[in-house]
Amino acid sequence: MQQLVTRVLLGQPAAVFGLRKIGKTSLLGRVQDLLDSDTSSGVNVTAFLRCNAARLRGGRWFAVVSDLIAQWTKRINDIAVNQGSKTQVRELRLPAVLATGRPAPTDSAVGEAFEKDVAKLMKAGRSLADARSIRFIAIFDEADRLYPSAPDAGWWKGDYFSLWDTLQSLRAGLDDPAELVYFLGGVNPSGVEAGSLVQRPNPLFELSKIFLSPLPRDESDSLLTGLGARVGLTFDDSALALAHDITGGHPWLLRKLGACSTKLIPTGLQGSRSAREQYGEYSSVLSQPSITT
Q1: Whole-number Å distance between alpha carbons of 182 and 102
Q2: Residue 48 in contact with residue 34, Cβ under 8 Å?
Q3: How many C-beta atoms lie closer than 10 Å to residue 93's C-beta?
Q4: Distances from the Cα of 7 to the Cαs of 11, 14, 148, in angstroms?
Q5: How do strand 180-186 and strand 14-17 relate by DSSP bridges?
Q6: 219-224, long-range: CB within 8 Å, 24+ apart, which pairs?
Q7: Which of 73, 176, 191, 255 has an alpha carbon 20 to 30 Å from 278's alpha carbon atom?
Q8: Where does the chain show beta strands of DSSP type E?
Q9: Considering only CA atoms, which of 247, 245, 248, 249 is closest in space to residue 215?
């Protein structure tokens, strides 16, 4: 987490990749919470988008930038209220361009409205920063669901490039590019490792990458013993070692294993610190078919 926070402070976009259920979404969420609560380093204006949402995956890039503007606007206005400032951002252009009943929006119209709205938000943010730094942060969870090379890419075969070209152009045009930072989370890193996608230059090529690995043995032990402590269970070293061997240190599997093991212990023994001794070695619990399969 500290790596991502440091990159925000330095204004460096990055991508986080790892196995499914390994904790990417939780990590990105904790980073957002930390940035939202940190006022010592400046004003952090965050937005968190879940790119696996059907509305975004099946829609146009317009929905993504619309969500960014909506979340950034709310965050700016909330910061203003907390500071006792009368600053409130209203009358933005993008909502009007995308309003129902209007002519079908074009890429250029959406891009222009988005850039003007970001400029307006940044002006408001700087007034709240009071000589401190201002950062607009966009977090894209499950970003690989919008890759143009996906079999069901749909509009994203072209919209991927419209979105990222717009964000990068906007960032490059700022006096201080560090004021706009974005993070991606996903499973598949090909979208930042390939120089081209669907025969077009990849705007995210060579984006800095962070890979989440399974937990080492000591962290695996800590997670499982922490879960056990909540229900009064203790585990010996051989049981912890077996749990790590079975799960490979995957956090989600460890949690599921802990939950299943608790269910296998008779209800009357749960909450007793001597539950393991009364019910037998934890390794025998892990050997149950319902766990190993």
Answers
A1: 30
A2: no
A3: 17
A4: 6, 8, 27
A5: parallel
A6: 219/249, 220/244, 220/247, 220/249, 220/254, 223/251, 223/254, 223/255, 224/254, 224/257, 224/258
A7: 255
A8: 14-17, 43-50, 134-141, 180-186, 196-197, 200-201, 209-211
A9: 249
The rounded distance, in Å, linking the Cα atoms of 41 and 222 is 32
For residues 235 and 276, give the distance between their C-alpha atoms in angstroms, rounded to a whole number: 7
Residue 124 identity? A
CA 51 to chain centre: 10
| Tokens describing residue 231 | 């229900």
Residue type, 131: A
Q: What is the DSSP letter of 144?
A: G
- Which residues, 6 or more positions from 242, have their beta carbon under 8 angstroms from its beta carbon? 282, 283, 286
**CA gap 211, 108 in Å, rounded:** 35
154-202 per-position pLDDT tens digit: 999 999 999 999 999 999 999 999 999 999 999 899 999 999 999 999 9
Are residues 240 and 221 in contact, defined by beta-carbon separation less than 8 angstroms?
yes
- Residues in the chain with pLDDT values less than 70: 1, 131, 213, 252, 261-293
